[in-house]
Each structure stands twice: as structure tokens, then as C-alpha cells.
Amino acid sequence: MGAIAGWKVELDDEVVHTAELVISELVTNAVRHAGPGQVSMTVRLIETVLRIEVFDSSPVLPRLGLSVGSAP
Fold this sequence. Notes:
The protein is of the alpha+beta class. 36% of the residues lie in helices and 22% in strands. The longest helix is centred in the N-terminal third of the chain and has 22 residues, at 13-34.
């Protein structure tokens, strides 16, 4: 995530750290659930919004919900 920290924009260290955690989780989930297909990611800063998009080749759409074993 040095790329985010290296942008010529002042981002709070907490924002960079949180982005690193979110990206790590999203990519890990995509790799785990997409199977042998491709995974790609884009990270963009649009004014004050950091947009993180992760794509995989799985035909199955993600479901919103708690993972097995998660507390409500």
C-alpha cells in the first residue's frame, strides 16, 4: 500500500492504515471465494472519497451478511 502513502495528497495515517486493512480483506475474500479466476483492484481518490473496488471472475454475486461464526 505504499502507493496510497506515496500519493501527492495529504491522507491521515489512520485513513491509509484503514485502507490497507480493507484492501487486504477484500482481496483475500476475492481470492478465497473466486476460485482459480482473476482478481483485480482499483483504488482511486476522488476529491475527499477513497474508492476501493475489487473485481473477480466468479459468476456468483456477493451476499451481504455475517460470516459463519460471527457474533451479531
